[in-house]
Amino acid sequence: MKTTEVTTDYGHTSRLADQAAAGAYLFAEHTIDAGHATPFRSHTRDHRSFVVIAGRVRLETPRGDGETESRTFGYLEGWHALPGCVYRIAGVDAEPAILIEAGSVLGETTEVTDSELRAVTCSCPDISDYTVNKPWGSEVWYTRGLPDVPYALKRIRMTEGHQSSLQSHQYKLETNYVIEGEATVLSGATAPEDLNAMIDLGSLTTTVHRPRSGWTNPSGELHRVIARTDYTSIEISTPELDDVIRWQDDTGRGHGQIDSEHAGGRS
Q1: d(Cα 1, Cα 19) in Å, to the nearest integer?
Q2: 208-234 burial by CB neighbour count: b if 16+ within 10 A, else e?
Q3: Structural domains of the chain, with CATH
Q4: Residue-wise pLDDT tens digits, 53-76
Q5: pLDDT, average across residues 148-156
Q6: Are 81 and 43 in contact (CB under 8 A)?
Q7: Those residues with Cβ within 8 angstroms of residue 2's Cβ, 6 or more apart along the chain or in another chain
Q8: C-alpha–C-alpha distance, residues 184 and 209, integer Å
């Protein structure tokens, strides 16, 4: 899944979403070396979300007088950079930090000079902790409550021995990246038009994914995830979160969003 790493002034970066997701969203992994920082940057038209998956980083944002405010984020913590916000990310510890960047791809990323910082004041809200309980584990909807955000970002946790429904999406496109544990993924066949059709699981391709690897499911593709161990992934998708057709499900759930799973959700 990961493309060739590109060396940067602060470490290196890799694109995570494959060609199937080109133009739908940005999904990348950044390594921030100790003692290094990105330039101050801004996305005039785009939302961006960041989640730390190793080490710690310092987020710096301008306060309008040439000085900056800073916050530190550790494992599975993160923030959103809203359109027009200016920010810089720095490594904190002696070891490199690794973080995921997800977001829209509507416009350009621009670097902001020190002199321009005096005209800017902005803050970056934390990612949401809105939790959805699942028969196989849980999801945290990081982008819950963001206005007009054209993508969805989740943390998915599945317990060993459990599996998702065999499902497809009419419109939604999604990419998963494993952070902890191992998962078997069944995929590779197009869902039939007949919703009552029987699915031959033997017709699907089986792949195993371990930390720092992942996959993309285009719309219309049958897929299922099976937890070989307890596993955690981060998933970015297009925003149609209720677009789920369940062909097989261990607990008999129907299509679409299951409202009872959101009973304990919080934002």
Answers
A1: 10
A2: ebeebbbbbbbbebbbbbbbeeebbbb
A3: 6-119 (2.60.120.10), 130-260 (2.60.120.10)
A4: 999 999 999 987 878 899 999 999
A5: 96
A6: yes
A7: 14, 15, 16, 29, 212, 213
A8: 6
